Amino acid sequence: MADTDSPRATVHNGTVAAHKSDGEEGWFDRVLTVFGLRPTEGLRENLAQALAEDNGEDTIFSAEERRLLQNILALRDVRILDVMIPRADIDAVPETITLGDLLKTFRKAGHSRLPVYRETLDDPVGFVHAKDVMIRVAEEAAAEDGLNFGAVDLSRPLADMKIIRQVLFVPPSMAAMDLMVRMQANRIQLALVVDEYGGTDGLVSLEDLIETVVGDIEDEYDWPDDPTMTAGDDGVWYADARVAVDDFETEAGVTFPDEELLEDVDTLGGIVFAILGRVPVRGEIVTSPELPGFEFEVLDADPRRIKRVKVVIHRDDEAKGGAAL
Question: What region holds the CBS domain (predicted)?
């Protein structure tokens, strides 16, 4: 139900304009006031530049707010190709799969939705939701004295259960923002990415799109393995970006400077992100005067997160007042 105390909004040529009551200042007006900006053709560029500048303690936005605003501005340039799960990594099932095998697949994959295909993944028919499967199992197991799961036919094929849902088909060049709007309108959270010949290139979910703005959304099925780190040559470490800062310090025998930069950081990937204020690209080398003696190289990353890093410890910086090594 609409909030009668909220400002009204009108759409003009796709742009939402808020109608404020007398004396009421909108959030965007406050942003312009903070940065001394006025509506011009370069407003987006000016705002992006202002967010990229480090104003020290005088900034009105926290590092997290700054990151979210930067991601929102960058969203219009993100394409489905940038965020999709490649075909080789898709967990999918044939429509002939039995109920028993389907339950096993859901357990192994750790997903709540799985694409369904006929002969190959290039001939998709939709997707199946784990919730629909469990509802059907409960219906078949229903008995007067409770649930009799022995009555459930586990050999029954998925195609006969009438629970396959519609899936969206989108090109890899489609804008991520356009797909997000389309998913919301159609109440569908899964889309298959198809090429010009109709073949399946990948898969994208609404969660994947949201993560381009808010960062990685982890649940109990994400990151099943413990993060690892291994020593290379003297002073060089190869580590999962999820390795905790405390664990790295203990294993490597070093101590990061107690800087404000690390106050809200828990992992090595978090350090790199805190230095840059964005997700780096693969191969990028990152240093900071606040962390003398440490050099981070991004070994693996995607548009949403850092996956693996190389940490180089320059021990000669100890004599220069650098890290405690």
Answer: 84-144, 163-220
Q: Cα torsion at 72, 74, 75, 76 (round to 10°)?
A: 120
CA angle 22, 24, 29 (to 5 degrees): 125
Helix (H, G, I), strand (E, B) or coil at 94: strand
Closest CA to 67 of 281, 275, 257, 260: 275
The distance from CA 131 to its chain's CA centroid, rounded to whole angstroms, is: 23
**What 8-state DSSP symbol labels residue 164?**
P
The answer to whether 157 and 142 have CB atoms below 8 angstroms apart is no
What averages of pLDDT result for each successive group of 10 residues across the chain (325 residues)? 41 41 50 54 70 62 76 82 86 94 90 92 94 92 81 91 92 91 89 90 89 69 66 88 90 84 85 87 89 91 81 67 44
Pairing label, strands 294-301, 190-194 = unpaired
3-state secondary structure (DSSP) of residue 309: strand
> Which sign, positive or negative, has the C-alpha torsion 3, 6, 11, 15?
negative
Contact between 115 and 203 under an 8 Å Cβ cutoff? The reply is yes
For the residues of 208-263, what is the DSSP string, one character each? HHHHHHH-----TTS--SPP-EEE-STTEEEEETT-BHHHHHHHHT-B----GGGT
Upper half-sphere CA count for residue 150 (Cβ side, 13 Å)? 1
Nearest to 170 by CA among 124, 118, 212: 124
Domains (range + CATH), the chain:
25-77 (no CATH), 81-214 (3.10.580.10), 229-320 (3.30.465.10)
